[in-house]
Protein: 30S ribosomal protein S11
Organism: Gigaspora margarita
Amino acid sequence: MIQFQKKKVKLKLKTKKETKKKLVKAFPGVKFSFNNTILDISKENGDILAMASAGSIDLGNKKITYTKKGTPFMAEKVAEEIIRKAYEFGINNVKLQVKNIGASRDIVIKRILLLEKKSLNVEALIDRTPVHHGGYHFVKIPKY
């Protein structure tokens, strides 16, 4: 009988090193409501890089309920999280876009502007809050 011997072959795979492209400019968008605060970071062309909201923040073993997501404390934690993600992408210059009103609007803006002194350069603060011009006109009741 003929017996075949198995040869052990070692393959060496070469992998490319993954390098993250550092972004120079980004647009953090902040959407406020009375129930939640949502922040995201997008490129100049509109692609979203990272997103954070009050429900996605981990506070250890504390459960975040609906009423606590709209508080200024949670908005401050969301701002810290999105700033940390901006550092990971190497973002230096930002144009902050703010939309709607909420209890924590001023706190988030101040938190991001305070980091301007350290390393985050805020070039512009854009307010995109919708403004009603004229409002809704009620239908007239017919007179008999």
Summary: The mean pLDDT is 80.
